[in-house]
Amino acid sequence: MKGNFFISLRLFFERRRQSVIATLGVVIGTAAFIVMSSMVNGFQKYFLEEALNINGHVKIFVESTFREDRILRKVYKEGVFLVLGAKPKSVKDRISNYREILSKYAKDENVLGITLHLVGNGVISYGVKEKPATFVGIFPELEDKTLRISKYLVKNNLGQLERNKEAVILGIKLAEELGIKDIGKKVVLVSPNGTLHRLKVVDLLKTGITEIDKSRVYLHIKKLQDILGKPNEVNEVILKLKSADLAPVYAKRFTKETGYRAESWQESFKNFLSIFKIQKIITRSVVFAILLVSGFGIFNIIMMTVLEKKRDIAILKAMGYEKRDIILIFSLQGIIIGVFGGLAGNFLSYGILEWLETIKIEVEGIIRAEGFLLDRSISYHLQGFIFAVLVSFLASFYPAYRASRFHPVEVFRSGS
Amino acid sequence: MGADTVLKAENIKKLIGNYEILKGINFSVKKGEFVSIVGASGSGKSTLLYILGLLDTPTEGKIFLENKEVDFSQEKKLATLRNRKFGFIFQFHYLIPEFTALENVMIPMLKAGVDSKRAKEKAEYLLERLGLKDKILRKPYQLSGGEQQRVAIARALANDPLLLLADEPTGNLDSLNTQKVMEIFQELNSEGTTIVMVTHERELTRMTHRVVEIKDGEIVEETTLV
Question: Is the pTM of this model over 0.95?
Fold first, then answer.
């Protein structure tokens, strides 16, 4: 083993040009893997973290159960499927036993917090500008205890909702679209039944998630109950759990136990999660392609080395080196390339990520940020290193195996 | 089989395709002997040497090394025997070009598990003995043909082999270097090293104890000179 390692190392350093070229491929592959993983996962993690902070893990709400074929289904069971043009029946959109839900689930060891919402749609206007918005009536203290809403407020004025029932918090993007640059302005909320309500903007909500910042309006639940004409009504119960992974199980349980529809965040963000999945597949494919190319580079270089070194392999065998030793000598070269390439790739990616963090650019899409959202987890560095060594080893194994099959006598006879 | 017989070949046959290269060779080497095998090109002398050195397998026949039959089915054992019991010298030096003379000599010792410090010391001693003291850190391309062959001899001696097998060791050298190599062989032999040398140069056989002549895969003459 000592001899094999010695020969391998010497061959690596003595055949500098080939070694550098092979290692460069691995460096690029490793760095690409780490940087891309960090960027893609950084974006996804940021989105999910912020979205979950604001929306909670499970939402209990009243589901519109209207189906056009419901009457006929009742009579004929599975015989008939659809009646066109049936008149929709209005469903009472409220959770009547929310107090019971609150007290029951607050005791659950996996429930970190519960908050109540009254949600309704309407229009908000400022001067001549009007924008559709989602009004969310909250109990400010309960909301902040359960979800970390104050973290996202520009002026940290959540308490004002409690003190001043005429106060309102606007999503920052919505405020921008209305032309509101700062707090203190008066806006008009137009309820679905047409009533107008003048409220004062006391803070702006900046989550970074465009969809939320563009549509959400927070006000005290009592005020919204007045505006919507739904006194003491609640139509959403939001739960925060100890672990986000528990959400599907708890959602199922809540649906069964409360009689209302409970939706986990995984279900709510189904579309985003599938986009993220595709994004990850694409990233992995690109990185895989890069590593495959560098793998082929290593394969070619080691194969060339093996063919060039037939005589040396033959004499090593004559001196007592076994097939296993020959495989080790050339595989070790692959591993050395992988180790050096993996380490250098790690340093390179670290530099690139440091540099990316300093770049200030406005990013606006699903999320809004002022630079690259990077996940600087050490696990990507470890994974990158492991991939580099693995790919290099696999790429060198076949040439090494081929080398081990050379028969010394054939080489000596050919005089090569 | 005598106690001083280090290597014995019994009825060795070698077929390559339909062509019978060796036709039942019986041959033995005693400890301390210097035997030369001569013959024309294609007579089978190198094939015999490869089989004697456990580099090739006979189609038929047996090899006894220190009175023990060699099992050709056990590759690992064969490799160990080659490493510990034999030293090979070929017409071409077959030195590894990336390594220095010193490192080339160290390689068989490292395989044998010798500590690298000890291997280095021994390699230095062997190279010094062969007149290469000031060239130990040179790479093969920085040495002359004769020097390269002397490094190859040092490498063959690295594990104190039972037997030195040389296949046309002077085939690539001028007369001066040929003379030097033969003197080294004689000196080694006088110190107790057993040598089997394959050559087509009849005049070199005068320096050996016994000459075995092969023709068309058969031993046709065996002459003891000393």
Answer: no
